Amino acid sequence: MKSHSADGQPVPDRPVVRLPREQEVFIRLRSSQDRVADAITAFAGTMQFVYIHAVWFLVWIALNEGLLGKGAIFDPYPFGLLTMIVSLEAIFLSTFVMVSQNRQAQRENVRADLDFENNVRSEVWSVHMGKALGLDPEGIEKRVQEIIAQSRANMNGASPGAPVDPKSL
User: What is this structure's pTM?
Assistant: First the structure.
């Protein structure tokens, strides 16, 4: 049975909560430049990229060492043009990597914000459910703090205590 608000509008039996997903938020923040940088960085991190460059360097050096004759040499040893091209490529690739790292940091911030929002939402719901059940919030919080302290001590190796027994919660 649906209830109605003061203005006569139907109110759903339960609240409609739609939590934002990290991917949806992040996609909205992405520009076409970001997509290009991500695509280049993704390709540069593959073995196919390495193979293409190995073949390219091999062909370049073979041509400029006179494998096809003196007329095919366009960048004689010590291959100054090749050195310049590789240096420019390294500059651009490192820039694309930094752009992608910045985007990853931005994505981590979005994830942290959504996690925080979900944690606050869960805490508020837990408090309201605890009140409805007549539980003592101070006693529960004291027990939570004890469990957190015990877990931290176990993680830090300070005490080889047993894991928290769920029955003791």
Answer: 0.58
CB 27 within 8 A of CB 37: no
Cα separation, 50 vs 79, whole angstroms = 20
- Quick check: 107 and 28 in contact, CB under 8 A? no
The pLDDT of residue 13: 63
Cα dihedral 77, 81, 84, 85 sign: negative
3-state secondary structure of 21: coil
pLDDT tens string 91-148: 999 998 898 888 889 888 888 988 898 889 898 888 889 889 999 888 888 888 888 8
CA-to-CA distance for 25 and 139, rounded, in angstroms? 38
pLDDT of residue 57: 96
Dihedral angle computed from the Cα positions of residues 99, 102, 107 and 108, in that order, rounded to the nearest 10 degrees: 150
- Evaluate the CA torsion angle 91, 96, 100, 106 in order and state its sign: positive
Residues 109, 135 contacting (CB under 8 angstroms) = no
